[in-house]
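Thread: magnesium ion complex, take 2
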Amino acid sequence: MVKEYHTISQIAGPLVFVEKTEPVGYGELVLIALPDGSTKRGQVLDSSDEVVVVQVFEGTGGIDKASGVKFLGETVKMPVSKDMLGRILSGSGDPLDKGPPIIPEKRLEIIGAAINPWARDNPREFIQTGISSIDGMNTLVRGQKLPIFSGSGLPHNDIALQIARQSKVVGKKEEFAVVFAAMGITSEEAQYFMQDFERTGALKRAVVFLNLADDPAIERLLTPKLALTTAEYLAFDLNMHVLVILTDITNYCEALRQIGAAREEVPARRGYPGYMYTDLASMYERAGRIKGKTGSITQFPILSMPGDDITHPIPDLTGYITEGQIVASRDLHRKGVFPPIAVERSLSRLMGQGIGPGHTREDHRAVSDQLYAAYAEGRDLRGLVAIVGKEALSERDRKFLDFADSFEDRFVRQGKDEDRTIAQTLDLGWELLSALPVDSLTKIDRKFIEKYHPTMKKK
Amino acid sequence: MAEKKKGQITRVAGPVVTAQGVSPRMYDVVFVGDLKLMGEVIKLVGDKTVIQVYEDTSGIRPGEEVVDTGAPLQVELGPGLLSSVYDGVQRPLPVLRDKQGDFVSRGVTAPGLDRQKKWKFTPTVKKGADLQGGAIIGEVPEGNIVHKVLLPADAKGKVTSISEGEFAVEDSIGELDSGHEMRLMQRWPVRHSRPYVDKLLPDIPLVTGQRVLDMLFPLAKGGTAAIPGGFGTGKTVTSQQLSKWSDAQIVVYVGCGERGNEMTEVLTSFPELEDPKTGKPLMGRTVLVANTSNMPVAAREASVYTGITVAEYYRDMGYDVSLMADSTSRWAEAMREISSRLEEMPGEEGYPAYLASRLSEFYERCGRVKTLSGETGSISVIGAVSPSGGDFSEPVTQNTLRIVKVFWALDSKLRERRHFPAINWLTSYSLYSPILEDWYVKNVAEDWNKLRLWAMETLQKESELQEIVQLVGSDALPEEQRLTLEVARMIREFFLQQSAYHPVDTYSPLKRQYDYMSAIRKFSELAKKAIALEVPLDRIASLKCRADLGKLKFEETIDQDIKTVSASMDKQFAELGV
Ligand SMILES: Nc1ncnc2c1ncn2[C@@H]1O[C@H](COP(=O)(O)OP(=O)(O)OP(=O)(O)O)[C@@H](O)[C@H]1O
Ligand SMILES: [Mg+2]
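Output below.
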């Protein structure tokens, strides 16, 4: 029998302070019974002889000092089961659809323990997304965490959906699943995702967690943990390849800041708590592969950069944890290029492990390095042309200038349903590079030029 | 007052636990709660003991027991460290996996050194020898090296017995007349530096095989370097390149609060790579400390000390050790996180006021020294720094730059154009260059230092000219200045850019670096003559030898190719009338 306390001494923002309790465990799950008969859930943030601090997920609205508080003697757990596939759940994991109750096969700790680095397997399986600017230039591999850094009004949802639809490991047919966690996005955006999942049949293979804009902010701290716990179960217990989409991380971080402020903690930058790096890491690091297991977790967090500022703590700390980033570009979007991916600012750190012979093609690294270099040079020249005019450029420079344009127009730009193979992507790269003087292709070994260059190749 | 070894928890707030009724010393290791989580005393106030816990504290309650071990956090030192992979408090990760499975769970202890494994010990001292602390008493083959067995620093006396044979680390291998029993293993508290006799001048370079580092901004053996850079600029790749290719005999790699997959990459690639000096597997000279970002922050705080103590131990045997700490910013953040739970008065950006002193104490532990046993050993430290927002004015970068002598500034602009390593050649510096000059003259080439200066000057001139070009375009410059731009471009693209992923380009010996840069300088000199003869620059720039010079770095035959291209340069310029 769990004891109920009526000793709330203080309620401040999302926090409730409870006195004169028996010893309560750190991180324990808490139930609060409100005067109106409803209950709210919370978690212990600080436990001492004198006072216990509880963070309330559903917000403290309606709680009064007479409300009853129960400590459940265990940390927050997530009931999981294979039947979760195809289901839509709230941000706290309760079914929102009219489906039958989910009978759990296991109840798992939602604070996932860290994967022992020794147990990790190297992610090296190339995922073909069919998007040239990703496959060619910022290659994704299974088990990677690769966020999309976007801004308000940019089509990051379309990019994420295209990736979710087209991603495949070439030549393999395996069990996959999508775990989708919405944190504070609008119901319209959520609908957009759901409709696409439904249209493509992905919904049957998806578990959806929805914390929408008008749901309690503190619940957002729970949602990704529930989603990732589910993902780990699907991947490492049921051997599925799981793609996790988390959106929008910015809302998650705002909730974190709110808790920090309520606890009167010393903030680090811009009011965000000093432990935000660790907190985000404990979420993003729940991706990868494990030796001896077939399943995998690949993460696609989406975040909107406040004021398009990549140095803002949210994208900054994320970039320090994830294995690269796909950056959406407002410039390209204005020019009407879809997907508007700023190739020069994007990066996939695991690219090296997933490309080359046996993965994609032997010339992949060289082609992508050369495309980068040439595009960077062309972009620099744009700046110059604005000042001195195109006429002042040398013949060579003009070619680079034109290259930058055709790179954006033909390589980066593609249809929302255009699914290019990696060979198509690389061949397209060669085609564009062949407009440049051969001796300026300094990043490419002679042997590849002789084999792949459209006009130089030996028959 | 009787020491009280046991007490009760009164408060749990994340990684910080407060207890009462126990009276440990500062920095003692304690076991916390029913799960016996490992922790360390970090503050004593009144009858309260404040503990940072190396493991997740979920579920721990006030009232549970705290037990003092009476000893500070120590590491075990002895044969078996090489090739090991530890967490921040020296628990071997493979052992943890065997015990707990794929995820790191709690309350498991595991000794740093294998207790069963036998090592072949050959004494180097005889019965009757009079020994001081730190003396070498014998040898054990370990990994790629000979492990010198050291007498603990506080032991001394005459050898009354010592035996050859196969021993486990805890077995007795002999005795001193002082009663000290000799073993292969000893312990050392991580927060104290191990003693040595003297610091020596760091006048030998740590050769890294990375052109921009060796040629322009060299690090000395026993020196300190910082690599600050925003995310994705190349801190980890550079650190890993150094741990693969630098000519240290021992490498300690501390993955401090970074990614799990990066440790996996090291673990999968190192065993397949060869130590460039000995040809033996790279893992055989490496110790890994992997406390990733999602592992407990208190253990992350400790990981740097665990790493440097292991480094000191091998230094004391007379080896050149290099230690990479990726990233020292995560270590600083761990300090900040703990400090903020202690409700200490914060300094800049919430970091504790003692940030600067902790950093300098750490870097002070490196250097080239005469050891207690009379050997010469060194520790070079390369610390990655991850400045928030990529802004070098933040406290960790600034406090680090006040201490270290080499600054390798990573630059997001360079990374965006895939100029790797993205080390900015205008803002980086090495204060060791002057001390190392003699060594290059003796060991590589008479005019190494001149060549270096020439390259630096050319790059400097380029940046000045670039400012003009930004305004008027390069066509407006006189041919000679356009040539400077062209040569600087060759230095940047051919020489400075070096791909860590290309099998040939990834490592470049000093002699090759010298030949390569010399060839570029030769091109520059011939081109200058051609321009004096009014040959247009565009013709010079389109000479085949120029393009060849750019490509040869990817060829297996590079050393021969440099010679061939150099010779063809004379011919091609002769055709222009030079
Ligand atoms: N010398 C190099 N050669 C080739 N590629 C490089 C080199 N250095 C860096 N890179 C590229 O840059 C990417 C990012 O480098 P790295 O992971 O070392 O960054 P980092 O500074 O450690 O970032 P973080 O702070 O986020 O850990 C690498 O994945 C690789 O693609
Ligand atoms: Mg890194």
